[in-house]
Write a structure and sequence with these properties.
transferase, Spermidine_synt_N, about 280 residues, alpha/beta, binds S-adenosylmethionine, Polyamine aminopropyltransferase, 10 helices, 12 strands, Spermidine Synthase, Chain: A, domain 2, Rossmann fold, single chain, PABS, about 30% helix, seven-stranded mixed sheet
Length: about 280
């Protein structure tokens, strides 16, 4: 069998996986959901034709979106997660005994159900007693929150379709309001490499900077995302991600991670010159 899944990474670049089986396809109220069994990357979840997670490289994304804020502020107890229907972000958060409450707001219940069935490695901890699942629009949910969370993680789709609102000024302003005085906001920040993704990244950076006194960008190498070079945003009312890094405290927790470590934490904020320039232009 010669079956391939192909995604457009730019109008002129495509990325393909060899597929052994198309395990699931459906169109929910919000998006087209597919699950493939691939030869190299294991199971793959795509939404509207874009890769969200693969079994082989999801650890990189989830390590970086969770452990960077938790190593900066190990006292975090109350977390809001927006999107993240595959469950990988919640899985990493539940490894911290200190965390008392995780509210996860995912617009599409069907994504969660599909991941619980086909991607148990990422979705398994969604049943942890500390996790409250809300199936609603994250944009609307944060409007009603004030001074309520230590950490907000925005683990969203790209800035079009249902995820569009999660890249707006209104949303980031409401995240600021929903956080307490020590609060941290971490978001998936798109890629700097291809022009369209880079514009999304610049828009997000500009909007977040307008609200938070500390607003930094860090990077990771994620093979299945466009260009493989992916960014995350770290914004805070109080904590600087390098100056306040609690490396000893985090290392004493003894969490085994395949990508994250506290040296890489500091290094991930050292950006290539072209990315620094894109950020300066956005500012
Ligand atoms: N790691 C992924 C990436 O960067 O491609 C994101 C994974 S996660 C599956 C993204 C989730 O965000 C999807 O399940 C989608 O349904 C959800 N989502 C999109 N827009 C949303 C919104 N407005 N409110 C809440 N969840 C939303």
């Amino acid at each position: 069998m010669n079956l391939w899944y192909t995604e457009d990474h730019s109008p002129h670049v495509r990325f393909s996986f060899r597929v052994e089986e198309h395990l699931y396809t459906a169109t929910s109220e919000f998006q087209k959901i597919d699950v493939f069994q691939s030869t190299e990357f294991g199971r793959i979840l795509t939404l509207d034709g874009y890769v969200m997670v693969t079994e082989k490289d999801e650890f990189i994304y989830h390590d970086m979106i969770v452990h960077v804020p938790l190593a900066t502020s190990p006292a975090i107890e109350k977390v809001l997660v927006i999107g993240a229907g595959d469950g990988g972000t919640v899985r990493e958060l539940t490894r911290y005994p200190n965390i008392k409450q995780i509210d996860m707001v995912e617009i599409d219940r069907q994504v969660v159900e599909v991941c619980q069935k086909f991607l148990p490695k990422t979705a398994a901890q969604l049943t942890d007693p500390r996790v409250n699942l809300y199936f609603e629009d994250g944009l609307k949910f944060v409007r009603q929150q004030e001074n309520a969370y230590d950490l907000i993680i925005v683990d969203s789709t790209d800035p079009f379709g249902p995820g569009e609102g999660l890249f707006t000024k209104e949303f980031y302003g409401n995240c600021y309001k929903a956080l307490n005085d020590e609060g941290i906001l971490v978001n998936q920040h798109e890629s700097p490499f291809y022009a369209e993704d880079a514009r999304g990244m610049q828009r997000a950076h500009k909007s977040i900077m307008g609200f938070f006194p500390i607003s930094k960008v860090y990077q990771a190498h994620i093979p299945t995302y466009p260009s493989g070079h992916w960014l995350f945003g770290f914004a805070s009312k109080k904590y600087h991600p390098i100056e306040d890094l609690q490396a000893d405290i985090w290392n004493e927790l003894g969490l085994k991670t395949n990508y994250y470590n506290t040296k890489l934490h500091a290094g991930s904020f050292a950006l290539p010159n072209y990315v620094k320039e894109l950020l300066i232009h956005a500012e």
